[in-house]
Structure formats: structure tokens, C-alpha cells
């Protein structure tokens, strides 16, 4: 492994297996029954969270390094300037896509964990808080010497919140369907 934050596929699945094993042992010793559906749910949740951690801790892009050189700061509170420059480059489109799509599964995980009893506003608010926490943690890790530096970007919070809105709306619309109610019931019962 060249770098802890750039694992190959074998290392990713090893870490995934270890985290899943810890979660399964925790559930066993907390005396909670683990049904097949709930085990699948837990497995997907652990994989999703591991992926989010690895993506969030990736080193800065060339555009981010250029911003730091120009501004001398690791805080970007002018989102529309940076968003415009992202749209001009090929890598920027990918970054925008990831910021919009990555929060969507989180809204479904939260909706399932709450057994469908969560409002659209609460889901969006939870997505906003999660986005702020991720950006804050990334920024606070700048003080640790062996972690890559990260910029605190308001544009990431805005795009992640918009992605949370998309995921929340999709979950709330699907949750009203009978097949989704039974899926939630089967998984979380």
C-alpha cells in the first residue's frame, strides 16, 4: 500500500470486511437479532460509510492547490467563483457530480433506519448537518501532519445539501408506495 488513503481493491475489501465484522460482533453482543435483510442493510451502510471516508480524505486537486497558492487560505467562502472554474474543466464536472450524488444513499439509509417516519425537511436538515460535519472534519485534519490538506469549501456544503434534497425527495416519494413500505418493514423489523 503506497498510501493509506489510496487503497487498492483488495485493501478496500479487507478494511470493509474488518469494519463489517466489528459491526456484526457489536450487534451480537448488544443482543440484537440480525435478520438477513438487516444484515444486508448493515453491510451496505458500512460499505457506503467507508467509501465516503476514503473519498473525503483524498488529497487536494490541482484546482484546490491553485486556489491555496492564490489566496493563501484553506477556506473558500466564495462558492460561485470556484463553481464557475469547476465547470470549465473536465475534473470539475466529476467533482460536481460526486458532490451531488454521494449524499443520496445517505438519505435512504436514514429513512430506512427511521422506518420511514421522517419528514422531508428533517432528511434535508440531516443531510446539511452531515455535509457540515464532513467539511469541518476535513478542515480540522489539516493540523495533523501526515493527512493531506483540505479546503473548507462552502460550495461542497451547498452541493451536498442539494444532493440531500434530491435524495430526500426521492425517498419521500418512494416511501409512499406500498412496495417501499413493505421493503422498509421487512428490512427493519
Look at the helices and sheets and give the structural class.
mainly alpha
How much strand content do the residues show?
A: under 5%
Secondary structure: number of strands: 2
What does the average pLDDT come to? 82
Straight-line distance between termini: 40 Å
> Which spans of ≥5 residues are poorly predicted at pLDDT below 50?
none
For the biggest β-sheet, the strand order reads 1-2
- Give Rg in angstroms: 19 Å
Number of helices: 9
Instruction: Report the order of strands and helices.
Output: HHHEHHHHEHH
Largest sheet: 2 strands, parallel
Q: What global shape is seen? A: globular
Characterise the protein shown here.
This protein has 189 residues and is an all-alpha fold. It folds into two domains: 1-58, no CATH class; 60-188, no CATH class. It is 74% helix and 2% strand. It is built from nine helices and two strands; from the N terminus they run H-H-H-E-H-H-H-H-E-H-H. It has helices spanning 9-29, 36-56, 62-71, 79-88, 90-101, 103-113, 120-140, 154-175, 178-188; strands at 75-76, 152-153. A two-stranded parallel ribbon has the order 1-2. Helix 4 (79-88) crosses helix 8 (154-175) and helix 5 (90-101) crosses helix 8 (154-175). The chain is globular and about 55 Å long. The N and C termini lie far apart (40 Å). The model has no long low-confidence stretch (mean pLDDT 82).
Please provide a brief summary of the model.
With 189 residues, the chain is mainly alpha-helical. The protein contains 9 helices and 2 strands, in the order αααβααααβαα.
Amino acid at each position: 500500500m503506497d498510501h493509506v488513503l489510496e487503497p487498492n481493491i483488495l485493501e478496500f475489501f479487507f478494511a470493509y470486511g474488518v469494519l463489517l465484522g466489528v459491526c456484526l460482533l457489536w450487534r451480537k453482543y448488544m443482543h440484537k437479532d440480525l435478520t438477513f435483510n438487516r444484515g444486508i442493510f448493515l453491510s451496505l451502510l458500512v460499505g457506503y460509510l467507508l467509501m465516503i471516508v476514503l473519498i473525503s480524505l483524498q488529497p487536494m486537486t490541482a484546482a484546490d492547490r491553485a486556489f491555496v497558492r492564490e489566496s493563501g487560505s484553506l477556506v473558500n467562502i466564495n462558492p460561485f467563483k470556484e463553481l464557475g472554474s469547476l465547470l470549465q474543466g473536465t475534473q470539475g464536472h466529476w467533482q460536481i457530480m460526486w458532490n451531488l450524488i454521494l449524499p443520496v444513499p445517505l438519505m435512504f439509509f436514514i429513512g430506512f433506519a427511521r422506518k420511514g417516519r421522517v419528514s422531508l425537511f428533517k432528511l434535508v436538515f440531516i443531510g446539511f448537518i452531515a455535509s457540515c460535519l464532513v467539511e469541518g472534519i476535513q478542515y480540522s485534519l489539516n493540523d495533523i501532519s501526515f493527512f493531506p490538506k483540505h479546503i473548507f469549501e462552502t460550495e461542497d456544503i451547498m452541493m451536498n445539501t442539494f444532493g440531500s434534497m434530491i435524495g430526500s425527495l426521492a425517498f419521500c416519494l418512494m416511501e409512499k408506495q406500498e412496495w417501499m413500505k413493505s421493503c422498509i418493514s421487512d428490512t427493519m423489523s
